[in-house]
Amino acid sequence: MKAVRAAGGLLWRPGPRAPRLAVVHRPRYGDWSLPKGKLEPGETFAEAALREVREETRCEPRLGSLAGVALYRVGARPKVVVYWNMELVRAARFVPDGEIDALAWLTPAAAVARLDHASERRLVARAGRGPAPRGPPARRRA
To answer: Is the pLDDT of residue 131 over 50?
Structure first.
């Protein structure tokens, strides 16, 4: 069975005491997550990550270092999501839509607490900017 391929980003901006990370709320799933989405035909993981972060946050990111890979199942299909650390180049006014209805810029500790998926909490912690994730996923596994 062919894996679902997706990509996303840990979009960082400077904060007063600690960097801030963009997290998005998806009403379809009722969860807080990192911006991510499936690859389009002919698209690389890096291209998809940049596109998805732009679409979901309305911001302009700059691709940085590889943040990590999440592997899990969606039903019977395996899914691989490749994430990059990204730097905010230009902020934009967030406008909610049917896919993403909220954007929050959180400290790493607050992001770890808010993110619903353990795999994403681990990525934030591994980025060297946040605390180690604790406990099981808040609602469901990513």
So the answer is: no
